Amino acid sequence: MKNIKILSAVVILAVTFISFKGVQKHKAAEKAEITAIFDDCIIDLNAQLEASLKMDDLKVDDIKLVEINEEVNLGFDAFEYLPIGFNAYAGTDLTEQDFDIFENEEIVDLGFDTTAYLPSEFNAYAL
Q: Would you write out the chain's pLDDT as a tens digit for each of its 127 residues?
């Protein structure tokens, strides 16, 4: 009976040590994966920083504008549904008067001085 207790204690200790060794191997594998991901991120960060520094040296003349004129196919001829003499660009010769949306405000005279009824340093337009 005494031998069985000793044998079971040895088996339990052996299993415990083996499980700790497995945990250590798992932690080492996780650490290697995290290190690999971190190294990839560092490489990406370096590439982005280099691209950012190159953008600082960019001049307006270096930028090329590419306009893509794609024809839109509606499945029918839109010309048949437009009025005769229709010009989509009519009215594009706008002047400054076309954009005058602010009207001049009329000054209202109440017949007395309102500053006497307002606090000192009052500003109606202050936020």
A: 667 777 777 777 676 766 666 556 667 778 778 787 777 767 677 777 777 777 767 777 777 888 888 888 888 888 888 888 888 888 777 777 777 676 777 888 888 888 888 888 888 888 7
Longest dimension (CA), the chain: 117
**Closest C-alpha among 89, 92, 88 to residue 79:** 88
Identify the DSSP state of 124.
T
**Contacts with 115 (C-beta within 8 Å, 6 or more apart), sequence order:** 122
- Which letter, b or e, does each residue of 55-92 get, where b requires 16 or more Cβ atoms within 10 Å of its Cβ? eeeeeeeeeeeeeeeeeeeeeeeeeeeeeeeeeeeeee
1 is written with which tokens? 């009976």
Q: What does the angle CA 14 – CA 28 – CA 45 come to, to the nearest 5 degrees? A: 170
Q: Centre a 10 Å sphere on the Cβ of residue 126 and count the other Cβ atoms it contains.
A: 6
